[in-house]
Amino acid sequence: MNSFARLVMREIRLAWTGGGLWLPVIFYLAVATLYPFVTGPDKVLLAKTGGGILWIAALLSTLLPIERLILPDRQAGVLDQLAIRGWSDELVAAVKITGQLVAFAIPLLLASIIASALIGLPEEKLMTLLLGLAVALPALSGLSVTISALTAGLNGASALGGLLLIPLAIPILIFGAGTLSDVPGNAMQLLAATSIAIAALSPFAAGAALRAGRV
Amino acid sequence: MTSRQAYAPSLRLENVTVIRGNRLVFNNLNLSVAAGELLWVRGANGCGKSTLFRVIAGLLGAFTGKVHADGKLALADENLALDPNLTVGAALHFWAQMDGATLADCDAALAAMDLLSLADIPVRYLSTGQRKRAAIARVLASGSAIWLLDEPYNGLDSASSAHLDKAILSHIAKGGIVLLAAHQSPSINVSDSLILDAKGRSV
User: Fold this and answer.
1) How far apart are CA B183 and CA B59, in angstroms?
2) CA-to-CA separations, B65 to B13, B117, B181, in angstroms, rounded
C-alpha cells in the first residue's frame, strides 16, 4: 500500500470510529423521517418535493463533521509531521477529501434508499437521486474539507462553516434538485460539470487554508 | 533506525531572520551543524527555540535567509502526532511505514525508549512522560538523520532521561545530527550551544 492510500485508509478509519460518519447519516435519515409528519400523508406532494428535501438534508449532513476533519490533526501535530515529510498541503487536502468521499459516500447512498422509502419517492426518481448524489459527493466532500480547513480553530467554527458552505453549495443544490424535476433538461450534466470543477479546485483552496493556519 | 543513513548529514542556516506578527524573533541568525554533532539550543521562555525548530523543519518561512538541511528531518515537539485510539505500537508503526521503515525499526525504537511493555496500550492512556517517550520513539523509528528535539526531557523521569541520552549518543555516534532545545543543561556532552535572547539575537 502506498502512502497516499495509507493516509486515505486512516481518514476512513477516523470517520468510522470517531462518530463523524454515523451522525450525518442519522441526521439525513431523521430529516427523511420527519418530513412526512410536516406535509401529511399526501403521496403526490411527498413524491414531488421529497427529493429536494433529501438534497438539502445531504448538503446539511456534510456540514456536521466539519469540526473533526482538520482541527484534531492540526492540534495533534499530524499535519506538521506530514509537512516535514514533504507532503504538500494540497496533497494532504486531497487525502482528506478522498477519505471523506469514500467514508461518506456508501453510507449516504445506502441511507438514501431507506430515506426514499420513508418519503415515498418513486423508483425512477430514486435511481436519479442516487446517481445525482454520487455525482455531487466529490464536490460536497471537497467543500466540507475546504470549509473545515478555513475554520479550524476558530470560535463557532460549525456555525461559520454553515454560513460559508451553503452559498458555495447552491449550484450543487440547484442542479441536484433539478435532476429530479419533471423536466430535468441538462441538470445532470451541469451537476457533473459543477462537481468536477469544485472537486478539482478544493484541494488547492483547502491546501492554502492549511498553510495559512500553520503557526 | 539510524543505520539507514546513507551519507553525512549537515545543517546550515544563513542570515535567517524571522518575524512573527510585529516581533523580530531572530535577526540574521547563522548556524552550522555537521554530522555527529549535538547542538544545545537554549534561552528563556519565548525566546524562539520552538520557532527556530519549525523554521528548520520548513513549517514556518523565514523572512530572509536560507535553511540548508542536507538530510531527512524529524521533529519531536509538544505535539505527539500519534492517533490516541491506536495502540502505541500501531500508532508508531503507521509513521514508520510512512517513513519507509520496517516493523523491526519500530520495535527497536520502542525498545530504545523502554516502551515495548506499553506497545499494546492505546496512546490515550499514556502518561505525560510516556507520551513524550512515544514521540521520541517516533523520531527514532523514522530513520531521520537530523533530529529536532524540542524540550525532550520535560516530563521524563531519570530512567527515561537516561534512555533518551543513550539514544542521542548512539545517533550522533553514527553520524547523525541532534538539535536539542532544553532549559537545563543535558547530562551528555554537547558539541556546541546556541543561546537565543529575547531580542532576536544569538549570543
Assistant:
1) 23
2) 7, 45, 21
Confirm whether B203 is domain-assigned.
no
Contact B94 A77 (CB under 8 A): no
Chain B positions touching A7 (Cβ under 8 A) are 98
pLDDT of A158 reads 77
Per-residue pLDDT reduced to its tens digit, B118-166: 999 999 999 999 999 999 999 999 999 999 999 999 889 999 999 999 9
- B145: domain range? 2-196
Please calculate the CA angle B27-B30-B35 and round it to the nearest 5 degrees: 150
CB contact A10 to B (< 8 Å) = yes
What CATH number has the domain bearing residue B174? Answer: 3.40.50.300
The Cα A150–Cα A145 span in angstroms is: 9
A83 touches chain B (CB under 8 A): yes
What does the alpha-carbon distance between residue A48 and residue A53 come to, in Å, rounded to a whole number? 10
Per-residue pLDDT of A139-185, as tens digits, reads: 999 999 999 999 998 888 878 888 898 899 999 999 999 999 888 88
Q: Which tens digit of pLDDT belongs to each residue from A69-127? A: 999 999 999 999 999 999 999 999 999 999 999 998 889 999 999 999 999 898 889 99
pLDDT for position A10: 95
**Interface touch B59/A83, C-beta < 8 Å:** yes
Task: Show residues of chain B in contact with A20, CB under 8 Å.
Answer: none
Asked whether the beta carbons of residue B83 and residue A83 sit closer than 8 angstroms, the reply is no
Using an 8 Å Cβ cutoff, are B59 and A83 in contact? yes
Q: Report the residue of chain B nearest A82, measured CA to CA.
A: B98
Helices (H) and strands (E) counted in chain B, each on its own, are 5, 8
> Residue B196 and residue B203: Cα distance in Å, rounded?
6
Beta bridge partners of B66: B14
Buried b (16+ CB within 10 A) or exposed e, A23-34: ebbebbbebbee
Domain count, chain B: 1
Residues A161, A147 contacting (CB under 8 angstroms)? yes
